Amino acid sequence: MGGECGVVDYWLHSVREQYNHHRSSLEHLPLEDQIDRMCELNVKAQVNSLCRTKILQRAWQRGQQISVHGWVYGLSDGRVKDLNCTISGLEQVETLYRIDRLQQGD
Fold first, then answer.
1. What is the pTM of this model?
2. Which of 83, 95, 86, 80 is nearest to 66 (CA)?
3. What ranges in 1-106 are assigned the alpha helix state H?
C-alpha cells in the first residue's frame, strides 16, 4: 500500500494503521480473506470512532436512544453480517474517550 493518491491517502491512513496493527493475524490468510477481515476491522474501528464524537455522546447524555451497529455486506454472497460491536450508550464507550470523564474534572 504505497504511492500518492491525494485525498484518498488521508482515508487510507486509518486502513493502513489497522493493517499494520493486525498484520500478524492477517498474513497467513489468503488475499480474499485478508480483504474481508480488513473490511470487518475497519467497520469496528469506525463504530468506535463514531461513538467517541461529542455529538453522539451528548445525545446519549440527553437520553436519546441511539445505537451504532457494525455490519458488513458480503459482495460474494449478498449477506449482511453483524459484527457484534453495537454500542448503545455512553457507558459502553472506552473511559478515555468519554466526554463525561472530561466534564467531571471541570
1. 0.82
2. 86
3. 7-26, 31-51, 54-61, 99-104
